[in-house]
Amino acid sequence: MTSDPAVSGDRILPFSVEPLDVRGRVITLGPALDEMLTKHGYPASVSRAVGEAAALTALMGASLKFEGRFQLQARGDGPAGMIVVDFETPDRMRAYARFDAEAVAHYEREGRATPGDLVGRGHLAFTIDQGSEQSRYQGVVALEGQGFEAAAHEYFLRSEQIPTRVRLAVAESIAHDAPNRWRAGGVMVQFLPSSPERQRQRDLDPGDAPSSHARDETPEDDAWVEARSLIETVEDHELIDPTLSSERLLYRLFHERGVRVFPPQSVRHQCRCSRARVFDMLRNFSGEERRQMIADDGQMIVTCEFCSARYRFAPEDFAA
Fold first, then answer.
1. Do the bridges between strand 92-98 and strand 268-269 make them parallel or antiparallel, or are there none, so unpaired?
2. Strands 22-29, 265-266: pairing kind
3. Are 116 and 300 in contact, with CB atoms under 8 Å apart?
4. What does the CA dihedral 196, 198, 204, 210 come to, rounded to 10 degrees?
């Protein structure tokens, strides 16, 4: 197996295909994702859901051109009813999931433990946070059992109105002589022509509307149809294969049109928590509230949900 970071590392590769007026990014997550997941000991199906969410968050967050944070938050009524992923520019990521272990095991036994199944019905929120002095932007899309790919497509159609296609894949490598490792990959392509008229898309399917309801027959641009069709040929193994680089995948897809790649961006797992941040949080509680947090050993113990780091404080730390 190669140790080339361009293949096995954590990186985002931007690209453009000028003849088709599309731009996009390819992501590979290896050690960073493995660190995010192994700190929590998630069931395999929950790890796959978190991996998909992490890949999607990085693909979208990498587009930020300022110092800030991009957050994906999925909330639903399923056994893994909350998944949160933070991407902080330029390269830091963290993630966690809340789940009911017994319910997840039941779903796995029944063979219905896809990310869409586990999150269930609810909503998926994308939040861009530019800092305390700037406004925050949030886009929300309904979750009705679909996966993160389909939810992303609906978000871009409704909120951004940019023709977009996303492919995501997650897998666990199993070796007899080494610990299991998680990998995730994804590719996102967006149609960005100079003329806004060329970006027009058909409305969503009207579903159970009466047959007399007029369907939107807006024709799609030929360049976008070609680019979208090529992305839809991407198979899961091409996104997670540790011997296949993002450059080779892009060449396979777009060599006939000509694809241009830009300098890659690294990604790493790093939590935002610290002892000072936790101390400031506890200081905002009342004395009575802090007394209720004291454990049998006389200490207050706070565990970070993202990285599982444990911070211990004595009541006298807050005496001042």
1. parallel
2. unpaired
3. no
4. 110
Q: What's the pLDDT tens digit per position in 165-201?
A: 999 999 998 766 777 789 999 999 999 988 776 766 6
Instruction: Find all residues with CB under 8 Å of 314, minimum gap 6, and list them.
Output: 298, 299, 300
What's 165's domain CATH number? Answer: 3.55.30.10
Question: Both 261 and 282 in a single domain?
Answer: no
Structural domain contains residue 208 = no
Residue 319, φ and ψ in degrees, nearest 5: -60, -35
CB 39: neighbour CB atoms within 10 A?
18
- The CA distance from 60 to 37, in Å, is 20
Residue with tokens 């992501």: 27
Q: Are 26 and 244 in contact (CB under 8 A)?
A: no
Q: What is the pTM of this model?
A: 0.85
* Residue 243 one-letter amino acid: T
The pair of structure tokens assigned to 185 is: 């990959």
> Residue 18: which H helix or E strand, with range?
none
Please report where in the chains the tokens 């967050």 appear, as a residue: 61
The two three-digit tokens of residue 80, written as one number: 């893994």
Per residue in 262-291, pLDDT (tens digit) is: 999 999 999 888 889 888 888 888 888 888
